[in-house]
Amino acid sequence: MGSKKAVIIEQSQSIAQEISSVLSARDYTVLRASNGLDGIELICEETPDLILLNPAVTDINGLCIYKLLKDDPRTSDIPLLICITNEKQAFRSLGIKPHRGQSVIRFTGKDDFDANIDAAIEKLKGRVDTNKFQSQSEQYKKLLGRLVGAYQASQSLHSSHARDILGEVLEKITNMLSSELGSLMLVEDDSQELVISASKGLSEDLANKTRIKVGRGISGWVAKSGSPLLIKDVEADERFSRQNSNRYYNSSLLSAPIRVKDKVIGVINVNNKESKEQFTEYDLSLLTILTNEISIAIESSHWQKRLEEANAQIEKLKTGKKIFADIARSLDDELYELTISQEVSNIIYARLDYKEIIDAILEIIERSLDCHLCGLLFVDEAKKTGVIVEVKYPASQKEVDSFKLKIIETFNRLTGGRLLPEQVSIDQADNNNLNDSFSENRNILSSFQAHLLTAGDRPIGMLAVTNSFPNAFSGEDLRVFSIISRHSSIAINNTLLHKKITELSITDGLTGLYVYRYFSDAMDKEILRSARYRQPFGLIMMDLDGFKKVNDSYGHPMGDEVLKEIAQILKKICREVDVVARYGGEEFAVILPETDLEGAYILADRIRMVIKNYAFGNKDNVINLTASFGVASYPDIALEKTDLIKYVDRALYRAKAEGKNKTVRATKEITNEIQ
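and the corresponding structure tokens:
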């Protein structure tokens, strides 16, 4: 019995048997229905992991079956693959012309189906996972809104109402991470011990008894360090308690802190992926975002409550006696600081992109502090660095450059880094006040202040302000600057994590190239752009010749290394503006903006020659490979995405049929064959 279930809706018993044998080899238990009504009933009863539908079934229109399954909440999230055995029948059943895409696979024989099924399922699940994640994110936000209400009622997460909601929060997090085991632990202030407030997959007795000292074990280490953690093998980690080992069938573990005002108040642990696979950096980034959003929700609630209290006190004092004027002014100052905190917190919830977040933070600083220049140095994991500067009052480019150098020098001093000025780009957020003829005799760095921005222990940037007047910033100014900096760390880290998740979701884990669904979206955008500006673009489809022999002769690890090397060749030869994607298996695709058919052909043939002359493998096992290419272009060959892909695919097919190691242009002759 396989660990996964698949339901096939297929009239032909022989075809169903061949599909079943392919899926069984992939650890699926296969169930079959010979008509649409039985298939729908079987799917609702069994809740399979995969559905294969031949739309040419006779009792119900194929499109109706598809819509029924996608509109039903019980089945809408199940990956559904349309399996076409007869294109004309499929066209009549679906009402659309079937094409090679995210949810369609052709069945022309068992071997062909076996070669293409993995890529088809991967593409389909990627789209289902994306839709499911977006839906779950919205539900998660609503859940956090309820948590804020419970927190405001008691100013604690230890109340029974708050604990009930935390149980729902943990359930949602473990579902989003496809995990069967998890715990949400809170720190007791008096004992400085972590206790389980909510759990999934743990016995009630174990959850009630477990107490971990901050600093001990994995959870204690995360609570003390404030840093999220991905452990590939918990049993090999010295922080792991051996008494827990019988609970884990997978040695991988995630743990992330819940922080409020720079203080860790709890830890979320996640174990045992349903797929029994190890957790990845993608999973850790997602868990960190989810725990950060808990922190943001609670902290925003805290500031909102203080804001309301301060407003009420000010109104009361303003109607009182004059002797309270100083107290009222003091409360006004606190109210101002609280307002700033709330404003920066709102940026975090706005889910802006990286540049918009930085611009919004600098705008708040510019309004809050009397500075000549304010700037933000950002450093991401890819070691890309830059400084964005806001020029509040007239300043020269020389002064802006001096400010940049001072920020880099301060960052290096505080972090032990070795950033060089030439490695850091600079961007003026507003050039209106930049004036090279401005020549006032002053030192723009007379009052320079900077705060390091961190994600846990990792520096991610620096926020800096400066004024040409000495001692220009008061104690109140520095307090406000500190508040903005603290919230900015959270905002920028969350944005970086969202960026990382986005990149991981659109790039192939093995080759680092874009995945099919990104390629498909990029095709749509390029068609719109090219139509608007009346520019051509080229499309290359490439397939490695006889790659299966590499896996059979040298093993899959060597095959993976070859695919990585192919990816590097493509990245090196193609331009930055080109979209290079792994289309599936050993097939690759390239979109070439502003390139006609002949230009695409020249580039494709250049890639072909490089691959032909390249020594893959290693010195002990040198592997010689060739590749076949199909080339098409917009608008000469086709105007629609589906047609372009068909035409380039047919050109690739001809290159294979004519002896391989060849580049073939799509021509009217080829397109007429398709039509």
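(Above: one complete record from the training split.) Residues 110-154 form the longest helix (45 residues).
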